[in-house]
Amino acid sequence: MLNELKTVNDSFISLIKEMDGVRAAWYFGSNMHGLSDEYSDVDIVILADKSAYSETDKRLKEILADVCDEVVLCWGEDFNGEAMKNYDYILSFNGKIFQYDVFLLNSGYIDDYMCRFHYTGLTEENVIFSKDNAAERLIVNAPKGEPWRADVERLAETYWLHVQMSVKYFLRRDFFKLNKVLRTLMDTHTSLLLTMYDETNWGGAENKLKFIPAEKQAHLMKYGCTEDFKLMRKNLKWSMDCFENDLEEIMPNCCGNLVKLIKKFFMESLLKEDN
Residues 6 or more apart from 134 whose CB is under 8 A from it? Predict the structure, then answer.
């Protein structure tokens, strides 16, 4: 963590702790799971009483402005509401700029799905401060989270359908529709690999993927859409082979005839494009 970020964080915590109606605070994200490094930002969750939620929300930016040189940007999530609010700040202090993320939870809606997500796996080691055991009560009932699991047959059908769809967009050179298809293919392949390997009980796909075998991570790295259609065809053919092999590991002979037909269609339809 940057020294400047640590200074701002310590000062912010000191001030927020003194606010009436603020019950607890804890670290989230990489800080919560011991994965932070010199490039990490800070993710801090603040629990406020229902009666103090709106006032705390109004004061967050003001308090941060007091402990840094400038609040360069305050970006609120579209889902912000009465249950919780998430703000991503870009702050400037002593010539450095860095990100500082604040999650504000309303204790009156503590069982809301989005609130629960932000204390899943919470332990005493993550708690920054707690008044009247507010954080400790959450820890007792904190969701444990679970590994990623998906319907493999559904994933396979989704994947090969979108491979078939990609052919017409390659032939039309329709970059934008092809981009959407490739994103779907990558997301589907991601879900397959996580279903195979994920054993973590926290985080989204981008966090969980870091814990699967490196050689499997590589299977996801050629789905990007570029203006070079020939390269994209080559990359997709390689990615399709990877998906087929990964699928065979977890569900042998799944969609066998369908796979042969789709791959044959892909190759025959696009072969002339590469000659």
Answer: 23, 24, 47, 107
